[in-house]
Amino acid sequence: MKVNGRHYRTIWYDDAAAVVEIIDQTELPHALVIRALRSVDDAAEAIRVMRVRGAPLIGATAAWGLALAMRRGAQDDDLDRAVDVLAATRPTAINLQWALRTVADRLRPLAVDDRAPEAARLAAALCDEDVAINAAIGAHGSELIERLWRAKSAAQEPLHVLTHCNAGWLATVDWGTALAPIYRAHDAGIPLHVWVDETRPRNQGAALTAWELAAHGVPHDVIVDNAGGHLMQHGRVDLVITGTDRTAANGDVCNKIGTYLKALAAHDTGVPFYVALPGPTIDWSIDDGLRDIPIEERDAAEVTHVSGMLADGEVADVRVTPAGVTARNFAFDVTPARLVSGLITERGVCAASREGLLALYPERRGVS
Ligand code: MRU
After folding, report:
1. How far is the C-alpha of 279 from the C-alpha of 302, rounded, in Å?
2. Does the predicted model carry a pTM greater than 0.90?
3. For 355, which DSSP code?
4. Nearest to 277 by CA among 214, 357, 190
5. Nearest to 22 by CA among 89, 44, 282, 227
6. How far is the CA of 331 from the centre of ligand 1 (A)?
7. Pick from 47, 53, 95, 266: most CB atoms within 10 A?
8. DSSP readout, 95-106?
9. Whose CA is nearest to atom 5 of ligand 1?
10. CA dihedral angle for residue 251, residue 257, residue 260, residue 262, rounded to 10 degrees
11. CA–CA dist 150, 130 (Å, integer)
């Protein structure tokens, strides 16, 4: 997507410097900082501290992490260590394990000398595939948006879409998942307005989604996380679209903490609640998301402190709780499939159910 007229992806290989480069999302929205990754440990650190985040981008960074590791040593032990280091960074987004498995399985049968160039080729291909997948999600989702907008009003009123966390281009290699349909529909001239949940504690909505939407010129307002239910009760939300970090084979959706409460409010008020996801986010081995998806618990300091820009332009962390308070920081929750109106994938829109997913991914029938 474009920032100040220049096209960016969130991750790319810089041939001249022979490094992988990322947009450092811990610096946004205050500064656009590009950071170089030179080793597998750099890639793991970037995922762990959330310089890169969002399920698809975590997967893409892990693939590049393996490629960086293979440059320094490509014996079986080197590959195993790199997989272990990257796999240990964040537990919930399934795209991490998927990317590691996809790349490592292709490297293992190769001669040691062939592994480094092939790993780089695979990482680049995985990134290109992510972009194509998200563009297709955008096309399918924008048809849904257009249908809802036409049904809503002949008076050219904007369609009000609520989203949670950041599932935009910053969460992927490009385009985004939940925001791809919004960008497509906006570019096609459908009047849209986005309610952006701030998404405590890391504020991915307030910091990242708002920054992206502003850069693309999509009208939006940031709201506190608890405002969505009120807006839905008053008919001010026409559609909810979120992303997901892992979707179970039965259609249960794991996403940023607070997504479940939005789904409950949407269900109670009759607002359609859709989830946008690429195929690699489906965990076909799990049939009960609530029971089987591991939920990351992060540092309590993310709850007790917030980061922001002071009046003098300095970016600082400030404490919002009494000193010494204890806090818990659950990063994700699971929305049961029964609360999800549909899943928007690169292959089309389906019911949030095993049968719905299998109709789009028939090759998974009988495979776990
Ligand atoms: O903790 P984060 O910022 O990595 O969480 C990201 C989300 O929850 C996104 O909504 C999800 O990864 C879907 S991104 C396309």
Report:
1. 31
2. yes
3. H
4. 357
5. 44
6. 10
7. 95
8. HHHHHHHHHHHH
9. 54
10. -120
11. 30
245 is catalytic: yes
CB 262 near ligand 1, within 6 Å? no
CB distance 59 to 280 below 8 Å: yes
Question: Per residue of the chain (368 residues), what is the pLDDT tens digit?
Answer: 889 999 999 999 999 999 999 999 999 999 999 999 999 999 999 999 999 999 999 999 999 999 999 999 999 999 999 999 999 999 999 999 999 999 999 999 999 999 999 999 999 999 999 999 999 999 999 999 999 999 987 667 999 999 999 999 999 999 999 999 999 999 999 999 999 999 999 999 999 999 999 999 999 999 999 999 999 999 999 999 999 999 999 999 999 999 999 999 999 999 999 999 999 999 999 999 999 999 999 999 999 999 999 999 999 999 999 999 999 999 999 999 999 999 999 999 999 999 999 999 999 998 86
Report CA(53)–ligand 1 centroid distance (Å). 6
